[in-house]
Amino acid sequence: SVPGGGTSIELWLPAMATDVNAEDSSSSVVTPLPAQQEGAATLPPVGDGRLILVVDDETGVRSVTSGFLRRAGYEVLEASSGAEALAMVEGRPEISLVVMDVMMPGMNGDEAARRIHV
Description:
The protein is of the alpha/beta class.
């Protein structure tokens, strides 16, 4: 991180193979690929139970992100908008981290983050 320059992160997700039936492209079967590293799927949780707020207007993205964090040992709250996130942070000072989408309708993630930070 550099002040005023933003932050870069890497997020590693398990690979999945998708088999699509050529005759019926609306159906697909998703099969997990073998782990690239020995024991990758059985790593112990690293979280210490701290509370993280996940904010995204897309239910699927919010759900997947929250699931990864819960499996890592964190407590997770979810919000579907910047305004909802702002209200939650104001009412829950124990929130340690906010993971937020930038592109959301209404109050976007950038505006919500500015208001939360102040």
